[in-house]
Write a structure and sequence with these properties.
Layout: E1 2-7, E2 10-14, E3 28-29, E4 37-38, E5 72-77, E6 86-90, H1 131-134, E7 135-137, E8 140-142, E9 156-162, E10 174-179
Antiparallel strand pairs: 1-2, 1-5, 3-4, 5-6, 6-7, 8-10, 9-10
Length: 204
């Protein structure tokens, strides 16, 4: 499992990094409603959710994980959750599996895909950056060097997200597919989800 985190323009790489599906000999081509397909044979793809669909980070399998901060960009690679093997947490807050979060001592959140209770407070998602926009399956669509790179489907745009600051994993720096119009605005709406103004949890 590979991780890369960017916050305040600084990048930290956690664990071994792998570009997963985007590291094959052929580019990925994204098609709305269909699996991300390789332009030729031999592209290694997962069997999970498709490009642009919500994904649940592997960290959400841990009962003590409090969720993500909207101030950070996190990329999980080599995950079976996504067909592209890349789960992009693009300034996403909280847990994808618990849109309204939970206060200390409450029992409102469950570990993704289970009936195990989350053991720590969890912030609610942001109304403007719910999991269907900011915790999604993605792939690297541009960057320095020869690639390879994927092609975003029509419902997504190729957005520069990760600078190469020389701190490791240059193969993860560059641009990623995000839903159109979902660029992060640090001065944007920070209203948190309260029932029933946000979508359902994603349990997978």
């Amino acid at each position: 499992m590979g991780w890369i985190k960017q916050a305040c323009r600084a990048v930290a790489v956690l664990g071994c990094v792998s570009l997963g599906a985007c590291a094959g000999a052929d580019p990925l081509v994204g098609t709305d409603g269909l699996a991300a397909a390789g332009a030729g044979a031999g592209v290694d793809r997962g069997t999970g959710a498709q490009l642009g669909e919500p994904c649940v980070s592997e960290l959400e399998r841990l009962p003590g994980f409090p969720g993500y901060s909207a101030k950070e960009l996190n990329i999980e690679t080599d995950t079976s959750t996504c067909a592209s093997t890349v789960c992009l947490l693009n300034h996403f807050q909280g847990r994808a599996s618990c849109p309204y979060g939970q206060a200390a001592g409450s029992m409102d959140c469950l570990v993704a895909g289970s009936d195990v209770l989350v053991s720590t407070p969890v912030p609610a998602q942001l109304v403007a950056r719910q999991s269907n926009l900011a915790s999604i399956c993605s792939c690297r669509c541009d960057g320095d060097g020869p690639g390879p790179y994927c092609t975003c489907p029509d419902s997504m745009q190729c957005e520069h997200l990760v600078d190469d600051l020389g701190l490791g994993a240059p193969e993860l720096a560059g641009s990623y597919c995000i839903p159109k119009g979902s660029q992060y605005d640090p001065s944007g709406d920070m209203t948190v989800c309260t029932a029933p103004n946000c979508g359902v949890a994603h349990p997978y």
